[in-house]
Design brief:
With 105 residues, this protein is mostly helical. The protein contains two helices and two strands. The protein has a domain of 65 residues.
């Protein structure tokens, strides 16, 4: 009987940055407490991005919106888009792992 070594689980990109804005990764099978916390953070970030888009649409329709308000909005949109891109990268990597037949979250 031939035994195969377990397929290593690739690192998961977490939905937050580490010190100096560097990416954070987690080695896990996807079922631990930190994985669940990352899932929760992703859900909150995506919901906040959706709310921000709604707010942006309202502000863009408002002829009285100020440049200061728009700059503040743009800063928040930049943060939200950064979060969404990190989530997409993380989920895309996990989908590729599943498609390759490897272990994954």
């Amino acid at each position: 009987m031939t035994r195969h070594a377990p397929v290593p689980t690739p690192a998961r990109l977490l939905p937050w940055a580490g010190p100096e804005g560097k990416p954070c990764y987690l080695l896990t099978d996807g079922s631990g407490r930190l994985s669940r916390a990352a899932d929760t953070v992703e859900s909150v970030q995506l919901a906040m991005a959706g709310d921000l888009l709604d707010h942006a649409a309202d502000m863009l329709d408002d002829p009285d919106v100020t440049a200061v308000q728009l700059r503040y909005l743009l800063a928040r949109v930049n943060e939200a888009l950064t979060d969404v891109c990190r989530i997409a990268e993380s989920r895309g990597a996990r989908l590729l792992t599943h498609a390759d037949g490897g272990a994954g979250c």
